[in-house]
Amino acid sequence: MAEARSFINPRTQTFDSLKTNLALPKNSKDKFVALNSHISGGVVLAGELVIVGDASTPSSTAQEAFLMAKAAQVHTALLVNGADGDDFFLENFELLK
Alpha-carbon distance 85 to 97, whole Å? Predict the structure, then answer.
């Protein structure tokens, strides 16, 4: 049985762009959306925890549930701390100098 994986999103991008760049197998796309419900609404901020589920089962595993809870905490912390503003300043540093 495979395991769920997770990674930190490196840059602000749309959820659709993120999903496309991962090149998920067709049978994993619905599960990917369900596991990443904390970010599936549109824009994925830099620093978000992204979950790639266990492709061997359509059901969520205990590990995936744990990662979903952690990802929701990270998402809330990013929103509270305004981390997206940092991303903007880093990308436009030369222009703003």
Answer: 16
Instruction: Read off the tokens for 80.
Output: 């509270």
**H or E element, residue 68:** helix 62-81
74 vs 93: CA distance, rounded Å: 25
Q: Are 72 and 35 in contact (CB under 8 A)?
A: no
Q: What is the pTM of this model?
A: 0.81
Please tell me the total count of domains within the chain: 1
Instruction: Evaluate if residue 90 carries a pLDDT over 90.
Output: no
Distance CA 68, CA 52 (A): 11
pLDDT average, residue stretch 68-88 = 80
Domain that holds residue 64: 5-96
CA 72-74-80 angle, to 5 degrees, is 105
